[in-house]
Specification:
The chain has 466 residues and is α/β, with parallel strands linked by helices. It has helices at residues 17-26, 41-46, 48-65, 81-105, 164-167, 184-195, 215-227, 281-284, 320-334, 364-370, 385-389, 418-430, 435-439, 450-459, and strands spanning 3-5, 8-11, 31-35, 109-112, 114-118, 122-126, 132-136, 139-142, 146-148, 161-162, 176-180, 199-204, 231-234, 237-244, 247-254, 257-263, 265-268, 272-274, 307-309, 349-351, 356-361, 374-380, 396-402, 408-415.
Length: 466
């Protein structure tokens, strides 16, 4: 079997891999992507993009039901669940095709097949026909992503018991749902199913939903969802989960006792595990963390020279935009053009249920644990004119400042447009901004972004409109 000489090889084409490929090509490298499935990875095909299409359908349904509040009379609304799922898949297909266009535009070679690393900077590629080739590279960026974590002994059948992967293409509308895990994926699907009329129970093992988020924000969202009829159980464990024909049953145990659940759909959303099996990692000598992810430094380099890793397979936050930025850093490092390393404490976190949750920087819980002296500013959107005008007064902005210099340590937003509003906070954090400079920045009126200026004023003891 002949060995083919390659320059920069990217193993995986998700939001980290394809971005790294483009940046490497821009810097003059001959880039080859090895992808076993569809271009775009989980995010474009089975994750963030198709799920947001589903959430848009749920949001539109919710808005149409309250059309009378805005002066409109509508007839009976009907849900075409098959069409909702179909639109989501169409959106994913279009964006995956867009990645293929970008690969051609940037002259990135794409090889379809399974990649297996070997010693001496080699990668074996096996395609679907069984053909096998060996690539000898100068540098490699591992971007193999992650897959849903499963419950031992529980079969994901794709009909009654699901992960997000199977739920995204399942076309039968459920009536009674159990969501195990209240992270971003769990809460987004819980919102989707509940908005379309299902009876939804959420079971989370940790003390709060959205565990990485600020506790006050998470508790506020929990109250909103409970008001909407969602049953949420924190500090809860699920056992005896099994399928019974076209239904499922489980035992849920929490501080309030033990109860039995039965319904027609169970979503397992308890986290992810890295896709590192079968890629030959052990042959390279690359080290892994105690949690089983690839260990990297701030330049995304592993302990083995010329071997970099990015995205979900390295752990930390499981976010597409985090993977994409890591892809830029890794490509520039591989090309000896690196300007800076990753700053993981400035990565925005977004959850796209309604209302949305978005944050960047430290939570109040983390600030306390670090022993930092701090001050808090909070403003409800009910005090923001634009929020009232568009009928979205629910939620708040919370800011955490260093008590001595006023540096913005964390920003946390709960609102229907939180994921759009968080960008300003990200810029503030990336520049180590202080509250006074944000307050001195003129925010247009009427806008939702006024809340950012107002909350800084409150934190500094200079409130104007609240």
């Amino acid at each position: 079997m002949a060995t083919i000489q390659k320059d920069l090889v990217i193993l995986g084409s998700g939001p980290g891999g394809y971005v790294a490929a483009i940046r490497g090509a821009q810097l003059g490298r001959q880039v080859t992507i090895v992808e076993r499935d569809a271009l775009g990875g989980i995010c474009l095909n089975w994750g963030c993009i198709p799920s947001k299409a589903l959430l848009k359908s749920a949001q539109l349904y919710h808005d149409m039901k309250r059309a009378s509040d805005f002066g409109f009379t509508t007839g009976d609304l009907k849900i075409d669940y098959t069409k909702i799922i179909g639109r989501s898949r169409d959106v994913a297909g279009k964006l995956s095709g867009g990645v293929a266009f970008l690969m051609k535009k940037n002259k990135v070679e794409v090889l379809n097949g399974n990649g297996e690393l070997d010693a001496n900077k080699r990668l074996h590629v096996s395609d679907k026909s069984g053909n096998r080739s060996t690539l000898e590279f100068k540098d490699v960026i591992i971007a193999t992503g992650a897959r849903p974590r499963l419950i031992p002994g529980v079969e994901i059948d794709g009909e009654v018991i699901h992960t997000y992967r199977t739920a995204l293409e399942y076309k039968r509308q459920p009536q009674k749902v159990l969501v195990i895990g209240a992270g971003a994926i769990g809460m987004e699907f819980a919102y989707f199913f509940r908005t379309l009329g299902a009876e939804v129970t959420v079971a989370e093992m940790l003390p709060q939903i959205l565990p990485p988020e600020d506790t006050e924000i998470a508790e506020s969202l929990e109250k909103i969802f409970k008001k909407q009829g969602m049953k949420i159980m924190t500090g809860a464990t699920v056992s005896n989960l099994k399928r019974n024909g076209k239904s499922a049953s489980a035992t849920i145990k929490s501080k309030d006792g033990e109860e039995q659940w039965s319904g027609d759909l169970c979503l397992v959303a308890i986290g992810v595990v890295p896709n590192l099996d079968g890629i030959g990692l052990e042959k390279t000598g690359i080290k892994k963390s105690d949690r089983g992810f690839i260990s990297i430094d701030e330049m995304m380099a592993t302990n083995v020279p010329n071997h970099f890793a990015i995205g979900d397979c390295t752990g930390n936050q499981m976010l597409a935009h985090k993977a994409s930025h890591e892809g830029l850093v890794a490509a520039e490092a591989a090309c000896a053009k690196a300007k800076h390393g990753m700053k993981w404490n400035n990565i925005p976190s977004c959850t796209y249920c309604q209302p949305q949750v978005a944050s960047v920087g430290l939570t109040e819980r983390a600030v306390k644990e670090k022993g930092i002296k701090y001050r808090i500013g909070k403003i409800p959107f009910s005090a923001i004119g634009k929020a009232i005008a568009i009928g979205e007064p629910e939620g708040m902005v919370k800011v955490i400042l260093d008590a001595e210099v006023g540096e913005v340590l964390g920003v946390h937003i709960l609102h229907s447009e939180a994921t759009e509003l968080i960008a300003e906070a990200g810029i503030i954090r990336s520049h180590e901004g202080v509250a006074a400079s944000v307050l001195d920045t003129i925010h247009a009126h009427p806008t939702l972004s006024e809340a950012m200026g107002e909350v800084m004023a409150i934190a500094l003891g200079r409130p104007i409109n609240f």
